[in-house]
Structure formats: structure tokens, C-alpha cells
Design a protein that fits this description.
Blueprint (H helix, E strand, L loop, with lengths): L2 H11 L5 H20 L4 E3 L3 E8 L2 E4 L6 E4 L2 E8 L1 H10 L4
Antiparallel strand pairs: 1-2, 2-5, 3-4
């Protein structure tokens, strides 16, 4: 599912809300999660999971085409850990759930 499909589904399930308002809500939620992660904060959505930032050290990688060593700078990457309820739901219902 992509963001526009999520917005469409929520708008359909909540006919009392305007589509533009649902879009604004979703964009605000994602924006706040992004801002919190950029500050180095952790975002926890109980039952769903937690977003955090992990630090990756600088390292020497390899160019997959040539095999040459390449320096890869340190970086911060987003990390998501599923919550217990989400894990249980996935394991009860499988991919088609």
C-alpha cells in the first residue's frame, strides 16, 4: 500500500471527513514522525511498533560492478521494530490476513 492508497482507504471509511483533511492528517503524522527521528527521538506507537534511528559507522565497502574498495561515510538510518500485537496479528493471519 502506498500513501495515496492509505489516504483513500481512510477517507472511504470515514465519509464525514473531507479527503483533503484526511490527507492533511496523514501528512502531519508522517511529518511529526520524521521530525522526531531527525532530532534523534524514538517514536512508539503501542501495539504497532517503534521507530528509532541507528548510527552506522564509516566503513570500506565494495563497488559491486568493479569490486573496487569504496569508502562509505558514517550515517544515520531509520529502524522499525514491530510491536507485540502487530507481530501476533501477522502470525495469526499470514500475508493474506
Amino acid at each position: 500500500m502506498i500513501k495515496s492508497e492509505l489516504i483513500q482507504k481512510i477517507a472511504q471509511e470515514n465519509p464525514h471527513l473531507y479527503h483533503r483533511d484526511v490527507e492533511r492528517i496523514i501528512n502531519t503524522i508522517f511529518g511529526e514522525i520524521t521530525s522526531a527521528l531527525a532530532r534523534g527521538d524514538r517514536v512508539e506507537l503501542r501495539g504497532f511498533g517503534a521507530f528509532s534511528v541507528k548510527e552506522r559507522d564509516a566503513r570500506t565497502g565494495r563497488n559491486p560492478r568493479t569490486g573496487e574498495p569504496v569508502f562509505v561515510e558514517s550515517k544515520r538510518v531509520p529502524f522499525f521494530k514491530t510491536g507485540k500485537e502487530l507481530r501476533e496479528h501477522l502470525n495469526q493471519h499470514g500475508a493474506g490476513g
